[in-house]
Design brief:
525 residues; alpha/beta; Rossmann fold; GMP Synthetase, Chain A, domain 3; 14-stranded mixed β-sheet; 6-stranded mixed β-sheet; disordered N terminus; medium-chain fatty acid-CoA ligase activity
């Protein structure tokens, strides 16, 4: 794979970009650039332009000219070329590209009299297929669509919508009427036929996951050329094919899920949506769907590896949105072979880097090299800063990290999570890795708490395998860690709480620590 090639001779800590420079005194034409040739080869290998690449490309340009650079233009392109091809499937059924376009057009016709271009409109989480139709309609109308996850605090959501000057809420749920925004039904009858007029490109507004604080809105303003370049790089690394079914057990209102939807709509690939499916059932779902590509987060991957089952067709696993433990990397490689990719990004910055199977074999804690068009540098305080697809200015990721000699990124943890224990800098991720290395520990989360002796000490919540006692865990910790680094309190829970996007809900656990003055060992078993 192209993305698995290593650049050598780059010192650790140097700035790393997703581009390469020609040697001084040489000129390189676009078609002569190996990266361009590889990307073009990967694009043709997907089959998306078959059987006639030039007419297919011309058709795409026509749809973009009509509808703007939007996901709707991609759906219209495939609906014109292959109307009966399945676009999406879920427990609610399947929809072809022609049916998906018709649903989006119906919603657009309903909304157009009430939502002028540029209006801020909230789209709450709901059933996946209607959600996608409403998303496509809003983008076609040129709206700023605020994608609302479920379970948000009503007061915080109302304040957010007021701050964004939201003009409407697309929902049939009467329980959302108290947010102070007029509700528009997605099932009303259109009063007139919708004509597209001038092409308008709407923008999705995503909320940060709220893993470590209150969610913040982030508008996705994607530059078309940069997005195309990034897409080609992902194709060269993942080598997908339009006939390779993709399984997504993640929500579409999160950046990870939305990026997967965009890539599948671009390629015309069937995407099966199964948000909320227990990890133990995913093996059976993948077998039924003949899934070749699985996209998920580390928590789901760990639970999948804990469950028995197999999916003979599975060849690519893309994991992201949270730190991937090296022990889990090795478990996955042992069970699935060289299938795992680690994708690093954030809601604010977009996609940043991708670790290929070769990268993870060489260094399981790596998040790979920056993607094309993404520049990464290490600030004086150790934080990683990025500039690329979504931002022209240097953006602090909030992550501490470094670059190795091969140009790969390694994350140490969140800057605001750093613990100073007896004068020693310790990141929760280091202690979490130590805990996960103990027999019987399935998952954990570590936090700093105040301590009179050392200034700070770690506290931890852990999930244990059946039959593993808390006393046995304490004994293993005593043999492995010095006293100042042993978590106290150490709380054993049946399962760690998760956010709607599948990540550990650290704010919930931290609030519990603040609320309860725990001392010593505590168990909920």
């Amino acid at each position: 794979m192209v993305a698995a090639r290593r650049r050598t001779g780059q010192p650790a800590g140097a700035r790393c970009t997703g581009t390469q420079s020609a040697r001084p005194g040489t000129a390189r034409t676009p078609l002569g650039d190996p990266a361009v040739r590889a990307a073009w080869t990967a694009l043709k290998a997907t089959g998306v332009l078959a059987p006639a690449p030039l007419p297919a490309a011309a058709g795409l340009l026509w749809q973009v000219a009509r509808h703007g650079t939007t996901l709707y233009a991609l759906v219209a392109w495939h609906a014109q070329r292959t109307p009966a091809r399945i676009a999406l499937s879920s427990g609610q059924g399947t929809v072809t590209f022609a049916e998906l376009q018709a649903r989006a057009d119906h919603v657009a016709a309903c909304l157009r009299p009430y939502t002028p271009p540029g209006a801020v409109v909230a789209l709450p989480a709901g059933d996946d297929l209607p959600f996608v139709a409403a998303l496509l309609a809003g983008l076609r109308l040129g709206l700023r669509l605020v994608l609302l996850p479920p379970g948000q605090d009503e007061g915080a959501t109302a304040r957010l919508l007021a701050r964004l000057n939201a003009q409407a809420l697309l929902t049939d749920d009467p329980g959302l009427a108290g947010l102070g925004v007029p509700c528009l039904s997605l099932h009303r009858s259109p009063t007139e036929r919708f004509w597209p007029g001038w092409p308008r490109a709407g923008q999705p507004v995503l909320l940060t996951s709220g893993t470590t604080g209150e969610p913040r809105p982030v508008t996705r303003r994607v530059k078309p050329l940069a997005a195309g370049r990034l897409t080609l790089a992902l194709l060269a690394a993942l080598l997908p094919h339009r006939d390779a079914p993709v399984l997504l057990p993640l929500p579409l209102w999160h950046g990870h899920g939305l990026a997967t939807l965009a890539l599948c709509l671009a390629l015309g690939t069937r995407l099966h949506l199964c948000r909320g499916t227990p990890a133990a059932e995913l093996w059976a779902v993948m077998a039924r769907q003949s899934t070749q590509i699985l996209v998920l987060v580390p928590t789901l991957l760990r639970r999948l590896m804990d469950a028995p089952g197999s999916a003979p067709s599975l060849r690519t696993v893309v994991c992201g949105s949270a730190p991937l433990d090296p022990a889990l990397v090795r478990r996955t490689q042992t069970r699935l072979g060289p299938a795992l990719h680690n994708l690093y990004g954030s809601t604010e910055a977009g996609l940043i880097s991708l670790a290929t199977p070769d990268d993870l074999c060489a260094s399981p804690d790596s998040v790979g090299r920056p993607l094309p068009g993404v520049r990464v540098r290490r600030a004086a305080d150790g934080q990683l800063q990025v500039r690329g697809l979504l931002t022209r200015q240097w953006l602090n990721t909030g992550d501490l990290g470094s670059l190795d000699g091969a140009g790969c990124l390694h994350l140490l943890g969140r800057a605001d999570d750093l613990m100073v224990i007896g004068g020693e800098n310790i990141w929760p991720a280091q202690l979490e890795a130590a805990l996960l290395g103990l027999p019987g520990v399935r998952a954990c989360a570590v936090f700093p708490v105040a301590c009179a002796d050392y200034g700070q000490r770690p506290a931890a919540f852990v999930e244990l395998e059946p039959g593993v006692s808390a006393a046995r865990l304490q004994a293993a910790l005593a043999a492995r860690l010095p006293r100042r680094l042993r978590p106290a309190p150490l709380t054993v829970v049946p399962e760690l709480p998760l956010t709607p996007s599948g990540k550990v809900a650290r704010t919930v656990l931290k609030a519990r620590l603040d609320r309860e003055e725990l001392t010593g060992l505590r168990s909920e078993h």
